[in-house]
Amino acid sequence: MPRTRIFLSMIALLFSSLACATLMGEDPYYDETYYSDEETEILTEEAPPQENDPGSPQSLTCPVVTDAILEAALTPGESETEEMDGEIYLVTYSVNGDELFDPYYEDVSADLEDEQMDESAHREIWDQFSSLIPAQHRSMIAEYSIFTDGADNVLAAVAQTQSDPSTWSLQVDIADISDPYNLTFTLIHEYGHLLTLGPDQVPPSLAIFNNPEDEDIYFQEASACPNYFPGEGCAEADSYIDDFYNEFWLDISEEWNQVNLEEDDDAYYEALDAFYAKYADQFVTDYAATNPEEDIAESWTFFVLSPEPEGNTIADQKILFFYQYPELVELRTEILKNVCVSLQ
Ligand SMILES: [Zn+2]
Fold first, then answer.
1. Which residue has the higher pLDDT, 41 or 53?
2. Are 174 and 120 in contact, with CB atoms under 8 Å apart?
3. Residue 141's closest CA among 153, 133, 149?
4. What would you report as the CA-atom Rg of the chain, rounded to the nearest whole angstrom?
5. Would you say 146 and 172 are in contact if contact means Cβ atoms under 8 Å apart?
6. Cα(292) to centroid of ligand 1, in Å?
7. Distance from the CA of 295 to the center of ligand 1, in angstroms?
8. CA of 37 relative to ligand 1 center, distance in Å
């Protein structure tokens, strides 16, 4: 599956989250693409109401739907990839709660004007995202962009906004939205980045934000961080990603650093494939092996969409990891209910 990255000739550990940067360049940036050619019947089933606990969110699960979403994410497609020269941004909306306003239209070629002006399609995607993730849990989102890199490649991404590192943008490729299962998986995955890299978890480094190309500043900030350093800043000591890293990545980080030292793209992907193959039982997907940030986002998505694992692989433990946080168990219940309602 095609991925793009910018190689930064620095210590790989320090640049962990920049390793999946896309062609647009400067900002830490996370991307995900999934393909599926399969059609799956959708059914929903409602769990019995919890009569003894009227205060809890109503539990609603739809295993046929969630299994289909996970299967779509795990199934490589065979669709033709339409290569374009990186992402082309079409329009960026400001976001306030559920509302989109003040669209900024980029200059684009005439063949992209239809997609650029298709406001109802833009709003439909936003409505899907905003109906999945409760508003109070996505207050860090200040912008929503529509871009395209042609069919496939990057489906969606998140990045710090250019004006304020404590706010983020959600970005979706309008050419990749036709499969509701892939889109749902990817939106939950992207939210996993916001959940684990947002300003409450990883207070952003202004020095890095204001000097994105300055390797010395990056090195200083990373060196001064006693906790996990995802790139945007120093993770809080009790943050999800710091806990996750300490629990699951300490043993493999040295080997993973070697992968990231590969400068040539082909050699990098070959080394990453070998790293994944060696530790496949540690990751919920192959893409999760990319770095700790992708790993926690993928594991989060499986936490939301899978039943509680009964096995004891490290991949299972990564899903079980989230059950130690009551606020995430509650959020899972809410998102799952919204998935079932939106895809039934
Ligand atoms: Zn990602």
1. 53
2. no
3. 133
4. 19
5. yes
6. 10
7. 8
8. 22
**What is the edge-to-edge ordering of all strands in the sheet holding 88-96?**
29-32, 156-160, 168-173, 141-148, 88-96, 99-105
Separation of CA 216 and ligand 1 centre (Å): 26
Q: Alpha-carbon distance 271 to 269, whole Å? A: 5
b/e string for 251-273 if b means 16 or more Cβ within 10 A?
A: ebeeebeebbebeeeeebbebbe
How far is the CA of 314 from the CAs of 268, 276, 299, 317, in angstroms?
24, 13, 11, 5
CA dist., res. 312 & res. 40, Å (int): 29
Residue 66: what residue type? T
* Ion ligand 1: protein residues whose beta carbon lies under 5 Å: 30, 32, 294, 297
Cα distance between residue 160 and residue 24, in whole Å: 13
Ranges of each domain in the chain? 218-343
Per-residue pLDDT tens digits for 201-246: 999 999 999 999 999 999 999 999 999 999 999 999 999 999 999 9
The region that residue 101 occupies, defined by phi over 0 for left and psi between -120 and 50 for alpha, beta otherwise, is beta
**In the beta sheet, which residues pair with residue 198?**
none
107 Rama class: left (phi>0) / alpha (psi -120 to 50) / beta? beta
Span 116-131, pLDDT tens digits:
999 999 999 999 999 9
Query: CA dihedral defined by 198, 199, 201, 202, rounded to 10 degrees?
Result: 100
